């Protein structure tokens, strides 16, 4: 014990930034055995854009692993169909995620129906691809509203409930388009990189409440990507050629399990990170 304290004293003298006090109690591991943690049994989640694409795959996998989910999406028909398919484990809320009232309603629905909120997945996003100088204010409002402001709105609305659980996970969505500077993606890339910056700050600010905040940058063949591939075949071919694992991911089998891991207690020592779920296309340093 004496040696440890001495060692920390030396470190304190050398550090230019504040370090935790030497007697700060280490946070205890949350709970569960390693055999149980990947399960999402008993967790309550909100998944934005959860009616289709990656969000739809996340909703299905969360329910399969024991969670209950409030799905928020613009698409009424797809959302209702998913809720019918998954039964009592899913509540569907039709709405635009850029509206703060929708965020508050989603959190209220989780508490009313499932008693609490443990996991927030900010997956919804929409954008238009054009050269930067052709992107209008409306294009910027779409990317920022559906991506960045929705992420902010849902995090703010969820905070009081996430604090109550004392063991919560927020998963936000970035994109290789932002990391790589893909052409025609100015507003989208800007929104996605802002989400990463926001997530790193909030990961630090909310760590004392044991609320983890991580970002996933996926690559998966979904409806949105299929539309983009059709509109920009050359850009799509370039992206596909850069995937070392040789394919665009499958939302159900390649991407949703990574999000389920981040939501689970197996990821309890991980926060402020960007996780690339992209077949190795981009390596962060
Ligand atoms: N698929 C990929 O390869 C890829 C690559 C990089 C990043 N991403 C990110 O992953 C996430 C999911 O991507 P995807 O390919 O499944 O997208 P998608 O377009 O297939 O699905 C998005 C879902 O969000 C919903 N949505 C969009 N705007 C909304 C709004 N304003 N309010 C409510 N719901 C709204 C849509 O109805 C849809 O159900 C997004 O954040 C996307 O930017 C995806």
From TrEMBL:
InterPro entries per the UniProt record, alphabetical: KR_dom, NAD(P)-bd_dom_sf, Sc_DH/Rdtase_CS, SDR_fam
Keyword DNA-binding: no
Stretch forming the signal peptide: none
SMART domains linked to this entry: PKS_KR
One Pfam entry name: adh_short_C2
Keywords from the UniProt entry: NAD, Oxidoreductase
Record's protein name: SDR family oxidoreductase
Annotated organism of origin: Actinocorallia aurantiaca
């Amino acid at each position: 014990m004496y040696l440890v304290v001495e060692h920390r004293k030396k470190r304190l003298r050398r550090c230019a930034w504040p370090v935790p006090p030497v007697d700060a109690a280490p946070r205890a591991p949350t709970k569960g055995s390693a055999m149980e943690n990947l399960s999402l049994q008993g967790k309550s989640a909100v998944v934005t854009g959860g009616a289709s694409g990656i969000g739809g795959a996340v909703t299905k996998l969360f329910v399969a692993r024991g969670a209950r989910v409030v799905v928020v999406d613009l698409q009424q028909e797809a959302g209702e169909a998913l809720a019918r398919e998954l039964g009592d484990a899913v509540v569907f809320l039709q709405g635009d995620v850029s509206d703060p009232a929708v965020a508050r309603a989603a959190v209220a629905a989780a508490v009313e129906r499932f008693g609490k909120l443990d996991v927030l997945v900010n997956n919804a996003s929409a954008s238009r691809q054009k050269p930067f100088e052709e992107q209008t204010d409306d294009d910027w409002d779409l990317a920022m509203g559906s991506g960045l402001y929705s992420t902010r709105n849902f995090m703010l609305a969820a905070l009081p409930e996430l604090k109550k659980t004392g063991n919560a996970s927020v998963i936000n969505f970035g994109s290789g388009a932002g990391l790589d500077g893909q052409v025609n993606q100015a507003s989208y890339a800007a929104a996605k990189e802002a989400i990463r910056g926001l997530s790193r700050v909030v990961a630090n600010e909310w760590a004392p409440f044991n609320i983890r905040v991580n970002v996933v940058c996926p690559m998966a063949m979904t409806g949105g990507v299929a539309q983009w591939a059709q509109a920009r075949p050359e850009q799509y071919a370039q992206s596909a050629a850069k995937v070392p694992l040789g394919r665009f991911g499958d939302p159900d089998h390649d991407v949703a399990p990574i999000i389920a891991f981040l939501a689970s207690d197996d990821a309890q020592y991980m926060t402020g990170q960007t996780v690339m779920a992209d077949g190795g296309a981009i390596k962060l340093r």
